Every structure is written in structure tokens, then in C-alpha cells.
Amino acid sequence: MKMDSDFLRQALRDHLAWWGLKHFSSDRDYFAWQRRQLSPKDLERLALHIERKRKGNRRDEIAFYDLTAHPKIYPILYSQRCEYYEEIGVRTAAHLDQAKDVLDFGCGIGVLTIFYARLFPEKHFVGVDRSSASIVVAQEKADRLGLRNLRFECVDVETDPLSGSYDLVVATHALVQSEQDPGLPSRSWRTFERGHDPTQQLSFERRTGLGIRLDRLCRILNSYGRMIVNEKTRQLARRVPFQRALANRELKLAERPALIRYRTVEEVVEDGPFYVLHRGSEETMNWDEEPEQDQGQLFDLDAVSLSSGDVNVPLYENHRPSAQTAWEQLKDRDVMREITCQASDGRQVHAERGSFRRQHYLYCANTFDQRQLVIVEEARSAMLEEYYQEIMRGLV
């Protein structure tokens, strides 16, 4: 049964309200509400668990999600995720019409799993998570609604296999647990291309827990099944090894990946891509390992003005991958200072300061896809020199 996206979005908003989640567009309003609902001791305890979770320890991660499943805390914390739930929930629900048995991996307290089960009473859903407290909340909510097409299981795939057989597996923000992992470096600071070193790929999959999770899910996915995944892999250095992990397990693109954008209250989050994958021998799309396209690629050297009219605004500034394309167009540049070295975090870094056509520039690049080009008038070259020295100090 195909459902209109407007209907799905409104149904999901009503569902989130049933959970007690509130949508906020102002940080001030959100945190004022948070302070009214939680005591200083509650907030201190939550902050402590958040800090421990960031270190990536498996036990601390489970403890964090056990805490956030508390009925007093989850409405507060997950209200920040209202737009995330909308973006992922609507997209996923639109792909459920052909599925019969669905596994929602890393379901948490079951917010979206229960939404899907309410929409499609003729389908069978299983929600899996390693937080026992989250599973208790999820099952209680499902029972309250009288859902008979849904059950929840507490399973930690790092220690135990999954059971059953499914024609659709959904895994959103559940496969790559280490948000701080930089990913796979490029061959050098001059390129966005990655080598195909299996040792580096395996290391990424082990560090992030991606490998064992994917292997467990592939074992319970039918030979004709589909998989929906969405992770925090927007940066190319993380997207490339993530895609290679999918491809290495014979998962193929069923449609063009979609970039996801939403807000956590005021903060804009660039997320995804949102992948719909399949198994099978039919033709499929190629995996894209190029950086995202952006308007900065339309750089016109002749259009860079000799004066910006504002002492606080550079003639040109670009912090996106296309800054490399712009830098390469500075054919007649005179390099005054440059350094290429290995930073303490392992990335290769290049910083270059120079001049061209009576203008001055600073260009920075590294093997984790960061690019920056700033161009100013000659009269403001001292600003770039100060910035260059600051970069030098950071590399020592």
C-alpha cells in the first residue's frame, strides 16, 4: 500500500506527540523546557554518561542508552531528534510496501519501529537493540497499543548472532558507532582518491564495529532481500569505506542514495546518505566515491574583485572540496611559504601562502578531505600570514 508523503509526515508527527516528544525551533525554548523537566542532578548524570559514550567504550554506550530509556529522560532527549525521526521515518515507510518480514536493527526505545507497525498491521516487525532498558520501554509501548505484529528482542550482535529470516532489514544510526573516527585517508593531500588497501578497510570496520554488525545482518537477510541504511557518513573519508563495506558483502544500490538534512533544534545536520540496497544479479548503479558537488566549483578567477568593500570580508573564501579546483586555477601563483607534514592525528597536511595578480591567498588541504582557500587584497596579507603561523603552531 503506497502512502502519500504528506500523510506519512503528519501521521509521524502525531505519533511523536503520542510519545510525549515536542518539536522546538529555538535552543533557548528547548533548554528552558529541559531545565523545568529535569533536576540539576539529572542533568549532571546525563552529561556524565554523554561524555563517557563519546569515548566509544561499548559498556559505556550501553549504559548511556539504558539511562536515556528512562521515562523521565527520553521525551526530553529525543525531542531534539524530531526532525531526524521525520526524515528517516517517512523515507523508510515509503519502502515498506513490498516487505513482509522486517527487522529494525538498533531500534532503541522503538519510536520508529512502532510507527511502522502501526502503519502496516499486515506485516511482521522485529525490533532489536542491545540496551535492555530500551527494549523494556519499546515492548511496553507496543503492548499499550495492542500491536500483535511486533516484538522486541535484546541482542548485542558483538557477542550473539541474530535469528530469523527477513526480506527487509532497516539499520539507521546503528552500524557505525564511532562518530569520532576520521575514516579512510586519501592517497595524499592533492587528491580525494583512496587506495584499496584491505588492511586499512578492515581496520576501519573493526574500529567502528561496522564489520561484525554487517556480517550478522547479511546472514539473516533473504537472498532476494533489501536493506535500508543511514549512518553519519556524510564526510567522504567515512563514506568511502562504509560503501566499500556494503559492496564487499554483495549489497548493491537499488536507487540513487539521498543526502539527508534536518535540525536538532537550531543546529543543522548534514547526514546520510540514505541507502536502499538489494541483493541480486540485475544491473545496478555504480558506487560514487567523488566528493559532493557544490557551487564553489563555479569559481571564476577573473571575477575575483580587487576590492571587497568590506575589510572583514575576503575577496574569496571556500571551505568545501571545490576549494581545490579553485586553487588549481591560480596558475601564475607565487608560493611564498609552504609546508607539508604529518599531523599528530595521522593526517597529511599541506599549508601554502602565496600571491598572484597583486592578491594574496592561503590554501590548506589534508588527507581527510578538508580544503580551504582564502584570497584577500595585498593590503591585508598580514592577516593571512598570522593565520599561516597559527596553522604552523598547530602542527608542531
Explain how this protein is built.
- The protein is an alpha/beta fold and 396 residues long.
- It folds into two domains: 82-278, Rossmann fold, CATH 3.40.50; 295-395, no CATH class.
- The chain is built from 13 helices and 13 strands.
- The protein has helices at 5-18, 27-37, 40-54, 58-68, 74-78, 82-93, 111-119, 132-144, 198-208, 210-220, 236-248, 323-328, 381-395; strands at 101-105, 124-129, 150-154, 166-172, 221-230, 252-253, 258-264, 267-278, 316-318, 334-342, 348-356, 359-366, 371-377.
- Strands 1, 2, 3, 4, 5, 6, 7 and 8 form an eight-stranded mixed β-sheet that branches. Strands 9-13-12-11-10 form a five-stranded antiparallel β-sheet.
- Strand 2, helix 8 and strand 3 form a beta-alpha-beta unit.
- Helix 1 (5-18) packs across helix 6 and helix 3 runs antiparallel to helix 4 (58-68).
- The termini are far apart.
